[in-house]
Amino acid sequence: MGVSRQTTFTVACALTAAAIVPGLAGYVAARFEAHEQAVREVLRLRAQLQDIRAARGADMRTLELRDAELRAAHVRYQNAQRQPCRPALEHITLVVPRQPMPDPAAVEAIIRRQIEQQAPAGWPTR
Question: Is residue 101 in some structural domain?
């Protein structure tokens, strides 16, 4: 009994479709389920973050204010760095000593006497 080519082709296509369609349906269902699970996880994390923000609201505002102050201070510092430096002193006054400088020979004699007083007995001074 001979089966025509068209019948053979139809049966082969039906068997192929019977194998592919359930697999494709399972794949699509798994992808949708994974997407729904990811959406549920994101919603859970958002709720948890909202609870943390509500519990630490004052702390978060304090941190935000501190960060804003630090940013403003940094901007002021950068602006100060860009400005040219102006000299703080407009004139310089020289200090004139009240006593005249001693004679260098007298200074050397004072130093020699101090060395002799501090040196142990028997040591040469120079």
Answer: no
Query: How far is it between the farthest Cα atoms of the chain?
Result: 143
Amino acid identity, position 23: G
Which structural domain range is residue 37 located in?
5-82
How many domains are there within the chain? 1
Question: At a CB cut-off of 8 Å and minimum separation 6, what does 53 contact?
Answer: 60
Put simply, whether the predicted model's pTM sits higher than 0.70 gets the answer no
Residue 33 has what pLDDT? 92
Q: What distance in Å separates the CA atoms of residue 70 and residue 115, rounded to the nearest whole number?
A: 59
**CA 50 to CA 56: how far, in whole Å?**
10
Question: Where are the extended beta strands (E) located within the chain?
Answer: none
For 70, the token pair is: 């630090």
In a domain? residue 65 = yes
Q: Is residue 95 part of a domain?
A: no
With contact defined as beta carbons under 8 Å apart, do 125 and 119 qualify?
A: yes
